[in-house]
Amino acid sequence: MAFRFKIYSRHYECLSTDIKLIDGVENGSTCTEIDTGDEFVFSGTSWVPKIVNTKLNGSLANVVTLQSNAVATGNGTAYTPESPMTLTFEISGTSTSRTIVFELAGPKGVYVAHPAIKVGDATYTAVTNTTLGNDTTPASYEVDIPANYSFRARVSAIAGGDVDIAGWAVAQ
What we know:
The protein is an all-beta fold. It has 2 domains: 4-49; 62-171, Jelly Rolls. It is built from no helices and 15 strands. The mean pLDDT is 88.
C-alpha cells in the first residue's frame, strides 16, 4: 500500500512500513497506520504519535520543584496549589548527608512540621523530616496539600554536595 490521502479530511492512511510523507502536508493533519491502528499527528515538521484512549480524572499533573541543586541550608521553593493536591516528590542529589524538613503553612504563612509518607513504605509511617535520598538511592514521599496552603521541603542540614527535590502534583 502507499501513503494515501483521504480527500477533504486532512487524514492519511498507510502501512507501518510505508514512509510518511511531509511535503505539502498541513499542520494538524492525522495519519492512521491501518495494520497497527497507531495514529499520528503532523506537527508541521514531522509525524508524532497521537495519544488515544486516555482518560484523565481531575486535572493534569503539575511539575513541582522544591529544591534545585541546593548546596546550603534553605527554604527552597514553596508549592501553593489553588485546589487540594497530592504531591509525590523525590529527593536526590550528590550530598553525602542531608536533613530535609517537610513543612506546611496556612493562610497566615506560618510554617509548621507536616507529615509525609515514604512511597513504598508498607507501614505508611508518617514522618516530618528525613535524611534519606541521593543520586544512588533516591527517596520518594507523598503529601496531601489543602487548597491555598503552602508546602515546602526545607534543607536544614547538608554536607558534601547538593540536593534536588522535585515531583508531580495531581488533583485529589
